[in-house]
Design a protein that fits this description.
There is one protein chain. By secondary structure, the chain is an alpha/beta fold. The chain has six helices and 13 strands. It has one domain (3-255): Purple Acid Phosphatase, chain A, domain 2, CATH 3.60.21.10. The protein is 23% helix and 23% strand. A six-stranded mixed sheet has the order 4-5-6-7-9-8. It has a five-stranded mixed sheet with strand order 3-2-1-12-13, with no helix packed on it. A two-stranded antiparallel sheet has the order 10-11.
Length: 269
């Protein structure tokens, strides 16, 4: 059984700042790491964590260094893909010591486990909020899927290719996604698409696969489905996902923090 934790949208800012003037994202990431480490005896062993984009808020070297410092206590290895708030060149430089980081081009990578393959894709577009998969990335994905048959596959990218009903986010999601849909539809084995960007737990079908959007760890995009609604955040509880192979891929949403319990339902029985 393979188990992958998905952390999404940390949005780390420079020391002394709050994201959007509202959110202490550094404390939220530290609490997320603490929660994962504390829960490992209950949910582990975990093979790897993936951060599905927006590691930083402005894509600066200081933010990437702070991100790595905050992640350093994590008791499991992790990899990442960039989001629209990241700078690919700086991200590559700040992770140049990691063997999963490509030396150039899009930040795409593959990690094979005994009964699962995890594929990370770069959907970032320089200086733009929306996502796009360049031809090199689509070719990378097509080749990776063709070489892997039998085991389930998780494909991870930042921008969801689905419509969520949150208007201001839908215009920033993955564009020109028909080629991606075709590649996923052609894959004959189980495949899960995992994304971030919307900071909410959302599930939909895409290209014959389940598309799972993860919650943010520090704040959420406000749930407002009205046409013309403002682009807002809400300080909802943070969370992360656990994806595991259990006669197929099963996904769990786990809140960040400490909560009362566990309590026996029937302590006297």
């Amino acid at each position: 059984m393979t188990k992958i934790i998905q952390i999404s949208d940390p949005h780390i800012v420079p020391h002394g700042q709050l994201a959007y003037g509202q959110v202490d994202t550094a404390s939220a990431l530290a609490e997320c790491v603490e929660t994962i480490n504390r829960r490992l005896p209950d949910i582990g062993p975990i093979d790897m964590a993936i951060v599905t984009g927006d590691l930083t808020d402005f894509g600066t070297e200081e933010e990437y260094q702070r991100f790595r410092e905050l992640m350093s206590p994590l008791a499991i290895p992790y990899r990442a893909v960039p989001g629209n708030h990241d700078d690919v060149s700086l991200m590559r430089a700040c992770f140049s010591d990691e063997d999963w980081m490509p030396a150039d081009g899009p930040i795409n990578w593959i990690s094979d486990f005994e009964n699962l393959t995890l594929i990370g894709l770069d959907s970032s577009v320089p200086d733009m909020a929306h996502g796009h998969l360049v031809d090199d990335t689509l070719a990378f994905l097509k080749s990776a899927l063709a070489a892997r048959t039998g085991n389930p596959v998780i494909v991870a990218l930042h921008h969801p290719p689905i419509m969520t009903g949150i208007e201001k986010m839908d215009i920033q999601n993955l564009r020109e996604s028909r080629k991606l849909q075709s590649i996923l539809s052609d894959h004959e084995h189980e495949l899960r698409l995992i994304c971030g960007h919307v900071h909410r737990n959302i599930v939909a079908h895409f290209g014959g696969a389940i598309c799972q959007v993860a919650p943010g760890i520090s704040h959420a995009v406000t749930m407002d489905l009205r046409e013309g609604a403002a682009n807002c955040l809400s300080k909802e509880p943070g969370g992360f996902m656990l994806h595991e192979t259990r006669n197929g891929i099963v996904s769990h949403s786990i809140p960040v923090g400490r909560f009362p319990g566990p309590f026996l339902f029937y302590p006297d029985s």
